[in-house]
Specification:
Order of helices and strands of chain A: EEHEEEHHHHH
Strand order of the largest sheet of chain B: 11-12-9-19-16-17-18
CATH class of the largest domain in chain A: Alpha Beta
Bound molecules: FE2/S2 (inorganic) cluster
Mean pLDDT of chain B: 94
Number of helices of chain A: 6
Number of domains of chain A: 2
CATH class of the largest domain in chain B: Alpha Beta
Number of strands of chain A: 5
CATH topology of the largest domain in chain A: Ubiquitin-like (UB roll)
Number of domains of chain B: 3
Low-confidence stretches of chain A: none
Largest sheet of chain B: 7 strands, mixed
Oligomer: heterodimer
Helix content of chain A: 25-40%
Distance between the termini of chain B: 73 Å
Strand content of chain A: 15-25%
CATH superfamily of the largest domain in chain B: Aldehyde oxidase/xanthine dehydrogenase, molybdopterin binding domain
Chain lengths: ~150, ~750
């Protein structure tokens, strides 16, 4: 058993694990009871598990816990904003009603938020490219693109 | 209507069905009170109390057997109830898919949640409101006609009384008779229905506070992972339990050919399942994929179902001046929910509680009771929303896995399927093969239409066997349940001679089930493509050609096509377009459906670009006209239509389950690709709202017309027909070569 310190959503936490190579996703969901990051494939193919590590969008399902340094900032959907005080990207998704089942939406918002932080005025094509590795089965893409555009112009 | 209100012990049930870990429900041993209370909540479809209750604070709880599969119906059903009861939306609480509390309104399928489930709730709400008004008239001593309601408060004669005072905590005890519908509100007075009320679940889903099935936990729970056979019907020969010795708390559970690992934490269960060594027998009972349709054609026919006959098609075909024949096929599809199936189960005092994202908790309950040979009353199934569900996918199977493991370990167990479990083991949309023939006279008028659909039979009922029950050799009913796949094999066009037959095949390679628009998509695909072939053979504009044969009395169908002409700025001319040079050619195609020939009308135009060098088809634009009668939530409807179109573009262009002789080999998103952002079409819509008409379904019909619109557009662009879904670049290139 090993204890790993982490900084998640601005808080210092420590997680006790048998296997330090356990993916970050399970630490967030099972040890910290966070519901934003979602299990979709475990293969870095869908994006449902996306979180930010030092502002970069990463696939937490294939990120070993051991690769995260204690000082690195892990941010999940919950850390981005709350229903009362949503992040501009979250607000845009709510305003555009850019959700069907919403299972992919964690990944869409986290990916888009990291993307918009580096590219403030993207074109529609750039938005679609930025989200090209995030899968949605419900076909909410058109709304998601509108939401990201809205967030970009907010 | 009988309107005396009874006191019940419903308050004992408070919290039932909510997403809390510690709620008490059902009957604990010796808890007679809870038992009485549970029995006291009516579930009959003919009781107002089955659908709703108003508590002492004036909160109305609506109980719906239809669940929200990610389509927004939790909001729409609230709108319908709130409208009829004259309550604000935030005074409606909704409980769905709990076998102890919600009536069995049937599986959430077939685009029926609003059309059937919502209308039942609307009826109950209208009956409740009428009773409340009657009671208010008595108590206020004011004539019923002089009363008005706002925000759950009845006013009249300068006096006021709230619903809570009239009924709070008591039951309505009113019977509903579907043959004598209760009068409902005049649509002209609607305040909520017909408006784009924002969905109640979206803020939580966008901020990580919503609890999906996959987030649900119970104290003391173990995590389970299944280890499915590498060949679908292989037998488990031996298991090397020592192979997972190094993983703390991991334990092997085996029953027959059912194999799983349980552990105290999720990662240990995952590692255990990956690491576990087992030997299985060989099995190679699947057909060769490259010969799938030969296999389908050669499968024994269990029975023929003639879905329409007009005149004598065989004779008329023999006499036609011009004859056409074509064969279409449609690949095996997987549901591919973005979140793999997940369930939690607990056995306590001989009773089973199952939490899952099942679209049919009442059915699942029967199946689980049968599997464990226990009384149905001792099983409670509760619904929690999972990832988008487009039919009977793996949720029920995960529920059975969890129940088996809970029984074996004596602890609550959560089972989360892996991506490979989901792709490999959810039931599939069966392969479909369709032969069509038609004849025309010298003037290009269609004189005969004949079609044959090779599709699996429905045998038994609608119980898709639970994988765990089959592997563990526990009791189950051997139904073949592909869904209602014969609909729309018959056609909306009035030809002099028609015969449409479904050859219901004895078997199909994979356990079948229904996936969005089951059968109706495949059948409409073949019919609408072949209709386009006839239009081209007659050198007619494809929309005018359709209009020529629609029943003139079916004005809603005619309006759909006329409005589509305007929306898409349709250029009236026959296909193909012709005269295009260069690698990339453009075309447009139309398709039309009257869903199941009795409800929702949809017309679409697809615009495509076909690259003749690479074989890649792009679909930049879709136009859709849609009439589902009364629209409950226009934005919710648009969301569904976008979803239907985008998902079906994906199914049409990309999707095909791959397999070898032993098992599915499309076990991830790389081997079963779906449409991604750069390839998503832009969609223009014209929604026809008919507030005075019944509300019809919108979750499926629009998907029915997408494959044919694309095929027809490709023909318009290239002059070549694509008749085999999916339209991969290889198939496109082969078709172009064949025509050259
Ligand atoms: S769950 Fe991590 S990418 Fe799919
Ligand atoms: S909204 Fe359901 S997967 Fe994207």
């Amino acid at each position: 058993m090993a204890t790993r310190p982490l900084t998640v959503n601005g808080k210092r936490v420590s997680i006790t694990v048998d296997d330090p190579d356990m993916p970050l996703l399970y630490a967030l969901r099972d040890d910290l009871a966070l519901k934003g990051p979602r299990f979709g494939c475990g293969l870095a193919q869908c994006g449902a598990c996306t979180v930010h590590v030092d502002g970069r969008a990463v696939r937490s399902c294939v990120t070993p816990l051991s690769s995260i340094k204690p000082g690195q900032r892990v941010v999940t959907l919950e850390g981005l904003g709350t229903p009362q005080n949503p992040h501009p990207v979250q607000r845009a998704f709510i305003e555009e009603q850019a959700v069907q089942c919403g299972y992919c939406i964690n990944g869409m918002i986290m990916e888009a938020a990291a993307f918009l932080a580096r590219n403030r005025r993207p074109t529609e094509t750039q938005i679609k490219q930025a989200l090209a590795n995030n899968l949605c089965r419900c076909g909410t893409h058109a709304r998601i693109v509108r939401a990201v555009k809205r967030a970009a112009t907010a | 209507m009988n309107t005396h209100f009874k006191t019940t012990r419903r308050d004992v049930l408070k919290g039932g069905g909510a997403l809390v870990v510690s709620f008490s429900f059902g009957a604990q041993a010796g808890d007679a009170l809870a038992q009485t209370a549970a029995a006291a909540k009516p579930l009959a479809l003919t009781e107002v109390d089955s659908y709703l209750a108003i508590d002492a604070k004036g909160m109305c709880t609506v109980y719906s057997g239809k669940v929200d599969l990610g389509t927004g119906t939790d909001t729409a059903l609230r709108q319908m109830a709130a409208e009829e009861l004259d309550l604000p939306l935030n005074r409606i609480k909704l409980v769905t898919g709990d076998t102890l509390l919600t009536p069995d309104q049937g599986t959430t399928w077939g685009s029926l949640t609003i059309q059937s489930g919502g209308v039942q709730i609307r009826q109950a709400s209208a009956a409740a409101k009428a009773a409340l008004l009657e009671e208010a008239a008595k108590r206020l001593n004011v004539k019923k006609e002089e009363l008005s309601v706002a925000g759950g408060v009845v006013s009249g004669g300068g006096k006021r009384i709230a619903y809570a005072q009239l009924i709070g905590g008591k039951s309505f005890s009113i019977k509903l008779d579907p043959k004598q519908p209760v009068p409902t509100k005049d649509p002209k007075t609607f305040k909520l229905v017909g408006t784009s009320v924002p969905r109640v679940d979206i803020p939580g889903k966008a901020t990580g506070t919503f609890t999906y099935m996959q987030d649900f936990r119970v104290p003391g729970m173990l995590h389970g992972r299944v280890v499915r056979p590498p060949a679908m019907q292989a037998k488990l020969e031996s298991v090397d339990e020592a192979s997972i010795k190094g993983i703390r708390s991991a334990k092997v559970i085996r029953q027959g050919n059912f194999l799983a690992v349980v552990a105290a934490n999720e990662w240990a269960a995952i590692k255990g399942a990956r690491q576990l060594k087992a030997t299985w027998s060989k099995w190679e009972g699947l057909p060769e994929q490259s010969k799938l349709y030969e296999h389908v054609r050669a499968t024994k026919v269990a029975k023929d179902e003639v879905t329409s006959t007009v005149g004598n098609a065989a004779e008329a075909l023999g006499q036609g001046a011009k004859k056409l024949a074509a064969t279409y096929d449609f690949a095996i599809h997987t549901h591919g929910s973005i979140g793999p199936s997940c369930a939690v189960a607990e056995f306590k005092d001989g009773k089973l509680t199952s939490w899952s994202a099942s679209q049919a908790t009442h059915t699942l309950r029967k199946q689980l009771a049968q599997m464990f040979a226990m009384p149905v009353d001792d099983v409670r199934c509760l619904y929690l929303e999972g990832a988008g569900c487009y039919g009977r996918n793996g949720h029920e199977d995960a529920a059975a896995d969890a129940a088996l493991l809970a029984k074996a370990t004596g602890k609550p167990v959560r089972v989360q399927w892996s991506r490979a479990d989901e792709h490999g083991w959810d039931p599939k949309g069966p392969p479909t093969l369709i032969d069509l023939r038609a004849a025309m006279d010298g003037s290009g008028t269609v004189t005969a239409w004949e079609s044959e659909f090779f599709i699996p039979q429905s045998a038994g009922g609608f119980l898709v066997p639970l994988v765990a029950a089959t592997l563990a050799e526990m009791p189950y009913e051997k139904h073949i349940a592909p869904g209602n796949i014969i609909r729309n094999s018959d056609i909306p066009y009035k030809f002099a001679n028609v015969k449409t037959v479904c050859h219901r095949l004895e078997s199909t390679p994979f356990t079948p089930s229904w996936i969005r628009t089951p059968g109706r998509m495949q059948n409409t695909y073949a019919n609408e493509c072949f209709m386009d072939e006839l239009a081209a053979a007659a050198s007619a504009d494809p929309i005018e050609f359709r209009l020529k044969y629609l029943d003139p009395a079916d004005t809603r169908g005619i309006e759909i096509l006329n409005r589509l002409v305007a929306l898409a700025k349709w250029d009236k001319r026959p296909s193909p377009k012709g005269g295009q040079s260069g690698d990339v050619v453009k075309g447009r195609g139309v398709s039309y459906v009257k869903y199941e020939l009795v409800r929702t009308y949809v017309g679409v135009v697809a615009e495509v670009e076909v690259n003749r060098a690479t074989g890649i088809i792009k679909v930049p634009k879709f136009y859709i006209t849609h009439d589902c009668g009364q629209i409950i939530n226009p934005d919710g409807l648009k969301n569904q239509l976008e979803g239907n179109i985008i998902q079906t573009v994906s199914r049409t262009l990309l999707e095909e389950l791959k397999f070898n002789r032993s098992a599915v080999t499309s076990l991830d998103w790389a081997s079963y690709p779906i449409l991604t952002f750069p390839d998503v079409p832009d969609i223009a819509m014209d929604l026809i709202d008919r507030p005075t008409m019944p509300p019809w379904g919108a979750g499926e019909p629009a998907a029915a017309v997408v494959p044919s619109a694309i095929s027809n557009a490709v023909f318009d662009a290239t002059g070549v027909r694509l008749r085999s879904i999916p339209y991969t670049p290889e198939k496109v290139k082969a078709a172009l070569r064949g025509a050259a």
